[in-house]
Design brief:
279 residues, alpha/beta, Chemotaxis Receptor Methyltransferase Cher, domain 1, Rossmann fold, 2 domains, 3-stranded antiparallel beta sheet, 11 helices, globular
Length: 279
């Protein structure tokens, strides 16, 4: 803690959580108070503030100016290529063939990566499609949304540090990336085509809607940070985004069983997905 900054109190934590849940769905439990304290401290210093309550009041009265800084401070942007690929591989088999046949655009999948960070997940989807197409037909239409505008710009640039490639083999790195220098790798053009990035907030349905419903939505390792009311709101939003019969993929540590009637858990190969109910 900076010597001139008062510690974050439980009362201040409660106020911030109220704001975060309403705006983004995010929640910091009591045992993560020090984590939030450390993440917000640079913003206090940048605004020449000595108390966290003062920063909270700043957000109340000048939110739009501070919004992007706040989002970058409190969101977890951990991501890398080829993360939890079992779910992506499912789309190369019968599940992908079925989705293509029954989709809004027959023969072409519409996929949404929700909470895409700097693009590793949607680009992984494209790489897997290039390696082994999701059935036959036109290339998938892949939309990717995130709440952090800075991360989205990095995604569009598609230049990555070695940490984002850490589970790839040297051969895969050579195949999919062009090495710019020791710390920078640019994703090759064929694996960037057809991936579209835009701002989107999981608790704001209007910011998520595409022109048409999606056959599959990936939202992995995001909802674990949500408060329960926001989690239910996000699930309800997904129910509007995924067509009947479509699939929702969550992280391995995430589950919505018992929280909604709109999706039904279904085992597909080695993973669990959630099938959109209805006709």
């Amino acid at each position: 803690m900076h010597p001139t900054t008062a510690p974050l109190t439980l009362e201040e934590l409660a106020l911030f959580n109220e704001l975060f849940i309403a705006r983004f769905g995010l929640h910091f439990p009591d045992h993560k108070r020090e984590i939030l304290e450390s993440r917000l401290l640079p913003r206090l210093r940048a605004n020449h503030l000595k108390r966290y309550i003062d920063y909270y009041l700043l957000l109340q009265y000048d939110y739009e100016r501070e919004k992007d800084h706040l989002i970058r401070a409190i969101t977890n942007n951990e991501s890398y290529f080829f993360r939890e690929t079992t779910q992506i591989e499912v789309l190369q088999g019968d599940a992908g063939t079925e989705l293509r046949a029954g989709g809004i655009l027959p023969g072409r999948l519409r996929i949404l990566s929700a909470g895409c960070s700097s693009g590793e997940e949607p680009y992984t989807l494209r790489i897997f499609e290039q390696r082994s197409p999701f059935g036959r037909g036109e290339p998938a239409h892949i939309d990717a949304v995130d709440i952090d505008s800075e991360r989205l710009e990095r995604a569009r640039q598609a230049v990555y540090r070695p940490s984002s490639l850490r589970v790839l083999t040297p051969a895969q790195i050579r195949c999919y990336f062009e090495r710019l220098d020791e710390e920078s790798y640019a994703l090759r053009a064929p694996f960037r085509q057809g991936v579209r990035f835009r701002l989107g907030n999981l608790v704001d349905l209007d910011s998520l809607r595409g022109v048409l419903p999606y056959d599959a939505v990936f939202c992995r390792n995001v909802l674990i940070y949500f408060a329960e009311p926001a989690l239910k709101k996000a699930i309800d939003n997904f129910a509007h985004l995924v067509r009947p019969g479509g699939l929702l993929f969550l992280g391995h540590s995430e589950s919505i069983i018992g929280l909604t009637q709109s999706f039904k858990a279904e085992r597909l190969g080695q993973c669990i997905a959630y099938r959109r109910e209805g006709t």
